[in-house]
Amino acid sequence: MKALRFSVSVPQYTALKLTGRVKPLYYTGPLATIRLVEIPEPSLPSADWVKIKTLLCGLCGTDMNLIFLRDSPTATPFTSFPCTLGHEICGEVTEVGDNVDAVKPGDVVTVCPPLGCRVRGIEPECRMCQMGRPSNCENFAEGSLAPGLITGLCRDVGGGFAPYLVAHKSQIYRLPPGLSPKEGIMIEPLAVALQAVIDNSPKEGDHVLVVGGGVVGNLIVQAIRSLGNGCHIAVAEPSSFHAQLASRAGADHVIVDGDIQGHSLNITKARRYTPLMGQTILMGGFSKVFDTVASASTLAASMRVLGGGGVLSVVGISKDHVTDLTPLWLKLQTIKGVYCYGFADMQGERRHVFEMAIDLVRQKKVAVEHMVTHTFAIEDYKRMIAVNLHKQRYGAVKTALSFAG
User: Fold this and answer.
1) The pTM is what?
2) What percent of the chain lies above the pLDDT cut of 70?
3) How far apart are CA 52 and CA 54, in angstroms?
4) Residues 381, 4: contact at Cβ < 8 Å?
């Protein structure tokens, strides 16, 4: 079967970095990090696994960062090459192991991608898995599988950018009748946004800033609104197209001119101070910030507009940063890491955030189907990547590979 596989070597990495901004070289030609190749159709690793026929699989910002080598090399011990990309998956179960009873062939499912202790056959589970956060497992390079944080980053498991993949029974979530494959692939990014909001939950009267109005930024706005939090939400997004979508999602204020501090003064009634040298800083400001970009510039801006005792959730994944930490100690700020999802307590019940996300979509409290704007055949993957590089030009939000028909 045909699959989109990622791989990179040190010489290849060095050569691509020397080419600078020639982006097509990352996905076309001899230096490409991603290629369409023939691989065998997978079989069940054990009686605890399920085989899935892919219907639709979304292209994530994480995939784009990987293809263009934007991630920090620090994460490479927890990835194994070559790996079939794709972790925003909707598919149909075609085969189940003898120990699987929650799903059957013909069920339409989505996959919770993290490859934690249970998936790897490790007992006792690590501290993070026992805490209900298998996405932050301490054993991503251990156990019965090759290293890999998630489905799509492990050479032994495969991913959604292929007609078939396998998943452990603990990763499978059946979709209720009426949910479309487009809604199915949006459960994973919605779960990311929902977990971020649960971990840094706004309160009545809070001023919240979301940096980046792309897929996850939009879903953070929707997640906050779906939970009934009566707070003011501002979104900083330079793209007028995505800014309009953020406004429709429930943002009260959209910042498109890049002047986050200037708008913050009006929104939060903070005060701005100018140091002898360097950037200005606000006293007062937002109580919660969700940075879905996490570049050096956005993190610096986020800390400077975050108020005293405020919490900054770093939702985006980017490279090394060097920034002035004065706002951190001066305003007693907290910076929280955000990665994937796990179990959470909501209204007295402990549930996996994937289940919560499915319920929000089923109940029409979050709208996601319209966000899947473009689908492509696997042979047209280069076009899909090009569209993602110019989303505003094409009016693209979420793009996906389709295997239906």
Assistant:
1) 0.96
2) 99
3) 6
4) yes
